[in-house]
Amino acid sequence: MKSPNPGPETTSRTSAPVTLTADGIVEIHSHEAVREAATDPRTFSSAVSRFLQIPNGLDGQEHAKFRSLIDRYFTPEAMADFEPACRAVATDIARNLPLGVPLKAVEQIGMPFAVAAQSAWLGWPADLAEELVDWVRANQEATRSGELARTAAVAEHFDRIIHSIIEPRRGSDGTADVTDQLIHDDAAGELTDQEIVSILRNWTGGDLASIAQCTGVILHHLARRPEVAERIAQGASDAEVDAILEEFLRIDDPFVSNRRVATADTEIGGCPVAGGQKVILNWADANRDPAVFGDPDAFDPDGNAQDNLVYGIGPHVCPGRPLARLELREVTRAILAVGIPEPARDSEREAAPMGGFRVVPVVLKPRG
Ligand code: HEM
Predict the structure, then answer these.
(1) Residue 28 forms part of a structural domain
(2) For the chain, which ranges sit under pLDDT 70?
(3) Which GO terms describe its molecular function (predicted)?
(4) pLDDT the model gives residue 151
(5) Is position 247 within any domain?
């Protein structure tokens, strides 16, 4: 299933492979150079924050130790266990959507789905949903504002939520749910409180905001490609649905960038980089590099899959990809089972540093 761009809708980006920001940060845009930096962790270290970030902020052996613990939570077996609960959450949300009236896809579908699916996966209480939805909203507003004090306050609020979830599970036997299993996991040695909070923060931060944003991107594109929506609704395989959704996310990558720091003087994409200099890997720009994808808006799930960097590449490649795929597949299928989305009006793009859309107005037309 391959088709041209249905209309002028995406943002134009820089054509330079590497640029220097006003603060002296090296920002990498080209596919080749982003790949090169992401797969060379000795030169481009992930130790960019003074805060503990497991596994994102670790390098080398320490990173590998925690990745082997974390990857066990996203195996095909673990995903198969979660699939029925994930489907039930998606079906419940889709069944309650009003048909034939304008809906805001990120706000009214993506956020509640992300929170409910994640709570079901981690075993978090349903009555926390409202606080988590409010948190996702506050987090997005803080990120948009660029104010450090606001971002810090939002992060502290999240840590309080995580602590309130961990405490009652202290005395349990580690079998109640995924959170319980993690708290008692000794595969990387006994985890400290700080380590547990950091791992959960990175899972939930990755999950909540990205799944909500991805749902918006997917509905934006499905509303503009009814033949693709129909194909999925008619029973496309899991692999076909994953390829279609990941191609939408390549065209409009909501997970824009990650940071690195150079460990030595080097060069990337023809640009000199000094040891200690901060570096940004811009996945969204790399995913629209015409040198690799030709017309970046042309839709070619099979042809573009091998170069798609939505989930990153290298040792830090997203461990949550199987979970994200499952959740996005289930929510897409559940929505298409009740209605086919049509644009209610133009979508509003997010502003940098965020990606995807702030508002995706769609109307669900009843099927049949
Ligand atoms: C749909 C959504 C998602 C997208 C687009 C996405 C994208 C990415 C990308 C690009 C990276 C690479 C970061 C880097 O190289 O510095 C990454 C890493 C990571 N992601 Fe995801 N992610 C998604 C969902 C999730 C989910 C559902 C989880 C967990 C529940 C998760 C957990 C993580 C973690 C822990 C890392 C750090 C891995 C490491 O440093 O070794 N992500 N993700």
Answers:
(1) no
(2) 1-14, 206, 368
(3) heme binding; iron ion binding; monooxygenase activity; oxidoreductase activity, acting on paired donors, with incorporation or reduction of molecular oxygen
(4) 86
(5) yes
